[in-house]
Amino acid sequence: ARVEHPFHVIKNLFRHRKVRYKGLAKNRAQLKVLFGLANLVLAKPALLA
């Protein structure tokens, strides 16, 4: 599915398996950064074309 691909990138490319920090705000911020980077990784072929 199209929705599962960003999770695949985050889990396998960035090796994110479990939370790193105690506290919801820090974990939320880390996931936002990882999803932003995953968007760039997934959009790379379109950006370079």
Describe the structure.
It is a single chain. This protein is mainly α and 49 residues long. It has one domain. It is built from two helices and no strands. The chain has helices at residues 4-13, 24-48. Helix 1 packs across helix 2 (24-48). The model has no long low-confidence stretch (mean pLDDT 89).
Compact overview of the structure:
The chain is mostly helical and 49 residues long. It has two helices and no strands.
Layout of secondary structure:
Blueprint (H helix, E strand, L loop, with lengths): L3 H10 L10 H25 L1
Helix pairs in contact: 1-2
Keywords:
single chain; mainly alpha; 49 residues
Mean pLDDT: 89
Rg calc: 12 Å
Number of domains: 1
Percent of residues in helices comes to: over 70%
Can you summarize the main beta sheet? none
Discrete helix count? 2
Helix/strand order: HH
Distance between the termini: 24 Å
Assess the beta-strand content as a share of residues. Answer: under 5%
Structural class: mainly alpha
Shape: elongated
| Number of E-type strands | 0
Outline the low-pLDDT stretches: none
